[in-house]
Amino acid sequence: MEFSIVAQTLDILEKTSSKIQQAAALALLFKKTPSNVIDKVVYIIQGTLWPDWKGLPELGIAEKGVQKAISMALGVSEAEVERVYKSLGDYGLAVERLKLGKQNKSVGLVGFIKSAKGEVYKKLTVDEVYSQLVKIAMLQGEGSRDMKLRLLSSLLAVADPKEAKYIVRFIEGRLRLGVGEATIMDGLASAFGAPRDLIERAYNIYPDLGAIAKLLAEKGVVELKNIKPTPGIPLRPMLAERASDPTEILNKAGIPALAEFKYDGERAQIHKKGDRIWIFSRRLEEITNQYPDVVEMALKRIKAEEAIVEGEIIAIDPETGEFRPFQELMHRKRKKDIHEALKEYPVVVRLFDCLYVDGIDMTLKILPERREMLRKIIDESEEFKLAEGMIVNNTAELETFFLKAVEAGCEGLVVKSLGRDSVYQAGVRGWLWIKYKRDYKSEMTDTVDLVVVGAFHGRGKRAGTYGALLLAAYDPESDTFKTVCKVGTGFTDEELAELPKKLEPYRLPHKHHRVDSDIEADVWFEPAVVMEVTGAELTLSPLHTCCRGMVKQGVGISIRFPRFVRWRPDKSPKEITTTKEILEMYYRQLRKVSQTTTGVGEER
Ligand SMILES: Nc1ncnc2c1ncn2[C@@H]1O[C@H](COP(=O)(O)OP(=O)(O)OP(=O)(O)O)[C@@H](O)[C@H]1O
Predict the structure, then answer these.
(1) Do 100 and 107 form a contact (C-beta atoms < 8 A)?
(2) What is the C-alpha separation between 301 and 295, in angstroms, rounded?
(3) N or C: which end of the chain has fewer CB within 10 A?
(4) Ligand 1 centre distance from Cα of residue 267 (Å)
(5) Is-contact 423 365, C-beta < 8 A?
(6) Which residue spans traverse the membrane (predicted)?
(7) pLDDT tier at 463 (50, 70, 90 boundaries)?
(8) Contact by Cβ (8 Å): 565, 354
(9) 267 CB near ligand 1 (under 6 Å)
(10) Neighbours of 566 (CB within 10 A)
């Protein structure tokens, strides 16, 4: 098929902004296109050589390179190309104008062109153009730039003016057609008489419009129905709507609903086929190489021979195993040495869905079945297990679980329908999943002084010392110490090693009578040792007793991401931060979440 036919369609597409007309033009083109090149035609219209998720190289020619290639192709100086470019503002138009000038001396620019030979253009085929572009993209490494420019210039030399215009725009990633995936799907539906929703579903589970077009052209609609999730090919993720009113959430999700921790990490689609693992990001980019540790976990923990599961990769504190905020994952990504990064920023995986298992398309199954299958195929461990979830029947349960999630370092919950229609809707944002995030948060701007009232035994690297300490604030009214948080971060190795010795003199066989705690510590202490603590936020907590019932019935205030700053031997337990002060801090710093992100918080 001649490339000029594609160029003509690109011209039509550029000239209209009507989606209907664009789809009609595309349908005409697709009908004319032989099935063996229809995938290439679709990619060209998308302005790409292959779906992004394939992770293949980009063309890699910058603006200056385009200018040089045009100059080489047309035998005109770079200065001349630049001059025309500056007057038209687009290299695509510039190459077209220069070419027309050569063809037709009346165009006016001819006076500026050195070699006006009156070229005879070759009839380029789609295959030739596509494969030359692929060659350009594939050239990598030293000396590749010159080779790329030579290949491009040889293509431009034989292209006609319109073809050259679109080739240049393609190279620059600026086709600017205003044609999205939806319009291409409309065009395909109309060209092949295929139901539009079928094409869309196929695309959502096999996001390669070129391949889908080819399948339609070669095998027809029937085969489209048979498309199912395939290990190695990412599915477009199902997305959640957002709501902040628990009643509305349960009305939409239905009762009972599954509430799951909403982890603050990176979404990962993990594919397994035998001993091969792929990990894809939310944007369908392959990120396997960034997570060799997750690859190892997946190989060990996914029992099915073939599977596609979805989950969140979350950074954890290497010392305590507690979740760390999303930014920590970004630090990890910035590290050059991946092995160093693995040690410094370890991760865990929490799985929340299962899209395919050993030949079965799980996307068509309802959530309870998908969850059950997930449980069946995962050999759970601390680092690779199912997301924490709870079946909720009313708003009170939902709210308590929400606070628990926030306290555990999560952003909130994702509430999921368990109903008869709760299939996995790839690529769709709907009410089957509802994110329930905090509206307000209270950033901690000051440190607090708290007393140690209990401790938890350390595991792994911390065996023999304490993994975390239970801390309390003082309530002068009742003369009791009320728990605020568990802290396990911020200690030096020496401080950690010395913890048991330091606290031993205060050790008790049971909880101290003036300590008010719902949490069962492994070891109890008399409130005596004081420390200064910092944290990310003050947050409502169903677990801690500090300020319980003061902001909200049945819940207290706790510190999110607490961190040890230093010991305060100069302070007695009764001189520490009081529960009243914590309550005041909580209200003083309370900001609407969307506003805090822009830094213009408004006090409530
Ligand atoms: N249990 C869970 N179930 C589903 N998604 C979860 C879960 N825990 C964490 N997530 C993450 O929450 C994301 C959805 O909410 P969030 O608002 O963070 O993402 P976004 O990128 O801003 O929005 P969205 O992904 O909805 O476009 C999911 O894409 C997923 O990465």
Answers:
(1) yes
(2) 10
(3) C
(4) 7
(5) yes
(6) none
(7) confident
(8) no
(9) yes
(10) 11
pLDDT of residue 445: 84
Q: How far is the CA of 544 from the centre of ligand 1 (A)?
A: 27
522-544: pLDDT as tens digits = 999 999 999 999 998 899 999 99
Indicate whether 574 pLDDT > 50: yes
Looking at this protein, which amino acid is placed at residue 282? Answer: R
For 12-40, give the DSSP string: HHHH---HHHHHHHHHHHHHHS-TTTHHH
Domain ranges of the chain: 48-172, 239-438, 448-597
Question: Which residue do the tokens 């910058």 mark?
Answer: 62
Distance between CA atoms of residues 474 and 451, nearest Å: 8
CA 167 – CA 170 distance, rounded (Å): 5
Q: How many Cα atoms sit within 13 Å of 246 on the Cβ side?
A: 16
Question: What whole-number distance in Å separates Cα of residue 231 and Cα of residue 287?
Answer: 15
Pick the CATH number of 48-172 from 1.10.3260.10, 3.40.50.150, 3.40.190.10, 3.10.290.10: 1.10.3260.10
Task: Please check if 566 is assigned to a binding site.
Answer: no
Interatomic CA distance for residues 60 and 147, integer angstroms: 12
Second-level CATH architecture of 448-597:
Beta Barrel (2.40)
Which CATH superfamily groups domain 239-438? DNA ligase/mRNA capping enzyme (3.30.470.30)
Q: Which of 30-44, 102-116, 478-492 has the lowest mean pLDDT?
A: 102-116
Q: How many CA atoms lie within 13 A of 603 on its CB side?
A: 6
- Best residue among 241, 269, 312 to mutate for probing ligand 1's pocket (most ligand atoms within 8 Å of CB) is 312
Q: Does 260 appear as a known binding residue?
A: yes
DSSP at 75:
T
What mean pLDDT value characterizes the chain?
A: 90
Is 414 close to ligand 1, i.e. is its CB under 6 Å away? yes
Kindly report, residue by residue over 219-244, the tens digit of the pLDDT: 999 889 889 999 999 999 999 999 98
Ligand 1 centre from 116 Cα, in Å? 59
312 annotated to a ligand binding site:
yes
Q: pLDDT tens digits, residue range 317-358?
A: 877 788 888 888 888 888 878 888 888 889 999 999 999 999
Mean pLDDT, rounded, for 145-157: 93
Residues annotated as part of the active site: 262
Amino acid present at 389: G
31 labeled part of a ligand binding site: no
Would the pLDDT of 367 be above 90?
Answer: yes
Cβ of 387 closer than 6 Å to ligand 1, yes or no, is yes
Helix (H) or strand (E) holding 69: helix 63-74
ipTM of the complex: 0.96
State the pTM of this model. Answer: 0.80
Our answer on whether the CB atom of 316 is closer than 6 Å to any ligand 1 atom is: no
Answer whether 435 contacts ligand 1 (Cβ < 6 A): yes
Distance 264 CA to ligand 1 centre (A): 8
Q: Which residue has the tokens 């779906």?
A: 51
List 430's β-bridge partners, or say none.
Answer: 240
282 annotated as ligand-binding: yes
Q: Residue 356: beta bridge partners?
A: 308, 361
Ligand 1 atom nearest residue 262's Cα: 8
Residue 34, φ and ψ in degrees, nearest 5:
-65, 145
Q: Which of 514, 365, 409 is nearest to 451 (CA)?
A: 514
| Mutational pocket test of ligand 1: of 264, 414, 597, the residue with most ligand atoms within 8 Å of the beta carbon | 414
